[in-house]
Amino acid sequence: GATRIVTGKRKNGEHFPMRLKLEEAQVDGETIFIVFIEDLSEEQKMKQALETRNQELQAHQNDLLEYINSSGDTVFVIDKEYKILIVNNQLKQKYQSAGIELSEGKNILDVLSPEMLATWKERYDHGLAGKSSSFVEERDNERGEKMYFEVSVNPLRGEGDEIRAVSVISRNITSCLTSLEGQVNVTDERDP
Question: How confident is the prediction along the chain (192 residues), in pLDDT tens digits per residue?
Fold first, then answer.
């Protein structure tokens, strides 16, 4: 049968969307036509509400991405299969400078160096087990200077408190530690 979406008119003059479906049947050797009419007003309201909600969610997601990209921290989120769900521009650029493309959908374990793989997989697994961790990591920059990063690995929970992902945030704290070391050294020099 044929189906059409048309505009109907109620007794009160209000227009509304409706679906007309035309079916053909044989009764006692004669062809008869049956028309089914379905009011689509509620369906249309639900679709509009869903579209509005999706636009709001997209705006919130864009705000969140803008926030993590404006931060000086490196931020990424991986799922249970270690696939990247979110990665900010700072981390993408860091890996890009090493000739590695980091993007959503890529498995983070595939881009880690063999030296880092076991350590970081253990950290991710710790988060996927529902445990948060925070630590300071020492690294050398390209000039061989010591740099310090505060790293937080946190589980992200979905419905029913199920762990669905892990977030990893890394912040360069070198200047803070250097400043504190300078203060400690000054204090030590003043003591008799």
Answer: 789 999 999 999 999 999 999 999 989 999 999 999 999 999 999 999 999 999 999 999 889 888 888 888 999 999 999 999 999 999 999 889 888 899 999 999 999 989 999 999 999 999 999 999 999 999 888 888 899 999 999 999 988 889 999 999 999 999 887 776 655 544 444 444
> Structure tokens of 36?
């089914």
CA 119 from chain centre, in angstroms, equals 24
H or E element, residue 113 = none
Rounded CA-CA distance 143/55 in Å is: 46
- Cα separation of 86 and 68, whole Å? 10
DSSP state of 114: H
Bridge partners (DSSP) of residue 147 are 139
Dihedral angle of Cα 99, 104, 107, 109, to the nearest 10 degrees: 60
**Closest CA relative to residue 6, chosen from 35, 48, 47:** 35
Residue corresponding to tokens 């504190």: 180
Alpha-carbon torsion, ordered 65, 67, 70, 76, to 10 deg: -50
Distance, in Å, from the CA atom of 143 to the CA atom of 141, rounded to the nearest integer, reads 5
One-letter amino acid at 3 equals T
